[in-house]
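Subject: Sanity check before I submit

Could someone independently write out the structure tokens for this chain? I want to compare against mine line by line before I put it in a report. The sequence has 96 residues.
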Amino acid sequence: MADFLDDDDDDIGADANGDMKIGNSNAQEVYSIMMTNQGNWRNSPLTGLNLLAKSKSNITANELIRAIETQLEADNFIDYKVAIVEGKPVITRAER
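---
Independent answer below. Compare away.
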């Protein structure tokens, strides 16, 4: 999906000409979903995982993977790969 791309500070990114950057936004959208809380998205109140809090809780690796997959599926991602590497969740693919 093409959309405006953010820069490293989560501001709208700009190219060398000062124009807004547009490109594949799947990774950016997955990041936003993983880092926000449920209730942060007015139009979709169940969207959001708060990955930082979940990863520090007593959740098992399988429960964490399933929570991530549930969020991806709810946002219409159909081709994804989620794994736990060195105790941390890694999403190596997320496509619609």
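---
OP: Matches mine. For the report I'm noting this point. The chain has a mean pLDDT of 92.
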